[in-house]
Specification:
Length: about 575
């Protein structure tokens, strides 16, 4: 029997205790080092945390303080980003290399310390240096503090589902080769579910994730897209899924038979084991929106096995969408709405202090002299500025110590050149394919409201871009295709119950309207979460000024902050 869940007082179930419990200090140790693994007929050395892939799952409650001691025993510089965590007054712990800190050098360590404030749901952590994110990642699960509850019936069990991407080679070398030659990085050869590729890949019949289900029980699947460069469709044969949260923001329950996630995004779904006793595949495959661009066209799968199902049963396989099914992807992305009145719900700020129209897309740049690069190399830009990370001092240090010359505050609030953004004929205008380099940011006052209209361009082809904002969630007011037209598209803005999230998949050849309140002083990077696009330059940052009180002022850096 189908069950519909709505947010109401009678539907609330206490998590564990009827009285509030005090906030805790939760402590972890991360040892980042080499690990030898056997996958897809190949033995190789990867970089991993605590000898595991994925790395450790961190479980906290809202209000807890988290301390993570990171020991870098790998041969690479690295930092860890706590993806989606607000980092209120703890920007030094955000983690993006050369934005909020210098990387942790091999043989060194750093303690990340921050408090989880006004957030609950599924987030995650990952390396924020080069392609190391392919194997250095894990779940960060935030439950309501004691005495509080989910705005949906208590599930029988909670299960993290981390979707990853796999190369049969050193991922650091994959990026290094791409940067040197100017070409796109070599493609991954597999996707994974909780580190396992599944039986559709060679030598992988026994390397498949399996989950036991009890018939009639409801499970909370915490789905995380930890892939580097691919959006993914996710389905379970013969089962419907009810979306209840995205990016640690509760949603109106949304029933679907397919989930779409962009790299960096999380989706929490309720799965009820309401089918006949048997075995059912869960599967993930690429949503590839760019025409003519090569992608990893493979499928990972795991098994949901009902208790009592014969081991000889052949699991049922879901019918997955076509790789270029933009209509299905857009239907999922655009039909999600926020849970008004739910925990941590925030109304849309109506007064806008800083309006921005930001074009996003690929481009080209000349090859440096005396290199192996052949012909123009790939680049990327926002508003015709290709972002360059500093090399000698992090941007947050420059902000705190008032050091000039690290960045400039002249990022344009609108395109410097207006054109027909989604018309492919722009590629005939060769100078438009080349964007100047710079470390340009937008400086805003504390507590101001920023509206960003993301506009995809057709330069080198249109594609869906997952844009991730550090330090904040934004309301997604509207999204659509073509060029944004304020005269008609403003009428589509949802000011009542828009979804909130930290990573928005801007439609291929389209636009998305977002707003956020800059209530956290520091330097916060905004970048495309397709991993190769950040080093290519598809990024910028916001410098949020300190507020008027000590409680709204960024504190000094920790004494063990890594130095460049």
């Amino acid at each position: 029997m189908e069950r519909h869940f709505f947010f109401s007082a009678c539907a609330l179930l206490l998590l564990a205790a009827s009285t509030a419990s005090p906030a805790r200090v939760v402590e972890h140790k991360f040892y980042v080092q080499n690990l030898t693994v056997n996958k897809l007929c190949n033995t190789q050395i990867i970089t991993a945390v605590n000898g595991r892939l994925p790395g450790p799952t961190i479980r906290v409650q809202e209000g807890d303080t988290l301390l993570v001691h990171v020991f870098n025993k790998s041969p690479y510089n690295l930092s860890i980003h706590w993806h989606g965590v607000f980092q209120r007054l703890s920007g030094w712990a955000d983690g993006p290399s050369m934005i909020t800190q210098c990387p942790i050098r091999p043989g060194c360590k750093y303690i990340y310390k921050f408090t989880i404030i006004d957030q609950e749901g599924t987030l995650w952590w990952h390396a924020h240096v080069s392609f190391l994110r392919a194997t250095v990642y894990g779940a960060l699960i935030i439950r309501p503090r004691g005495g509080h509850s989910y705005p949906f019936p208590m599930p029988y069990k909670e299960v993290p589902i981390l979707l990853g991407e796999w190369w049969n080679t050193n991922v650091f070398d994959v990026e290094k080769l791409a940067v040197a030659t100017g070409a796109a990085p070599n493609l991954s050869i597999a996707y994974t579910i909780n580190g396992w590729p599944g039986d559709l890949y060679p030598c992988s019949e026994n390397q498949m994730y399996k989950l036991k289900l009890l018939q009639g029980r409801t499970y909370l699947l915490r789905i995380i897209n930890a892939a580097l460069n691919h959006e993914l469709f996710f389905k379970i044969a013969n089962h419907k899924l009810t979306v209840v949260s995205i990016d640690a923001r509760y949603t109106q329950p949304y029933v679907t038979n397919v989930v779409v996630t962009a790299p960096g995004q999380t989706v929490d779904v309720l799965l009820t084991a309401d089918q006949p006793v048997g075995s059912y595949y869960m599967a993930a495959t690429a949503y590839a929106s760019a025409d003519g661009v090569l992608f990893d066209n493979t499928t990972t799968r795991g098994v949901l096995a009902y208790d009592g199902a014969p081991s000889s049963t052949t699991p049922l396989m879901p019918v997955l969408p076509d790789f270029n099914d933009t209509l299905t992807a857009h239907k999922f992305y655009s039909n999600l709405t926020g849970l008004v009145g739910g925990p941590h719900w925030e109304p849309v700020p109506l007064k806008v202090d800083h309006e921005m129209l930001v074009t996003i897309g690929l481009g080209l740049e000349p090859c440096p002299a005396n290199t192996s690069c052949k012909g123009p190399k790939l680049s990327a830009s926002m508003n015709n500025v290709s972002f360059v990370r500093p090399t000698s001092l992090s941007m947050l240090q420059a902000f705190f110590f008032n050091v000039n010359g690290v960045y400039t505050t002249d990022f344009p609030a609108k395109p410097t050149i207006e054109f027909d953004y989604t018309n492919a004929s722009i590629n005939n205008n060769i100078p438009m394919l080349f964007a100047p380099k710079g470390t340009k940011v937008t400086k805003v006052k504390f507590n101001s409201t920023v509206e960003i209209i993301f506009q995809n361009t057709a330069i080198l082809g249109v594609e869906n871009h997952p844009m991730h904002l550090h330090g904040f969630d934004f309301h997604v007011l509207a999204q659509g295709f073509g060029n944004y037209n304020p005269a008609t598209d403003r009428k589509k803005h949802n000011f009542i119950n828009p979804q909130m999230r930290n990573t928005i998949a801007v439609p291929a050849g389209g636009w998305a309207v977002t707003r956020f309140t800059a209530n956290n002083p520091g330097v916060w990077v905004l970048h495309c979460h397709l991993d190769m696009h950040l080093p290519l330059g598809l990024a910028t940052a916001f410098v949020v000024e300190n507020g008027p009180t000590p409680e709204t002022t960024l504190p000094p850096p920790p004494v063990d902050l890594p130095q460049c």
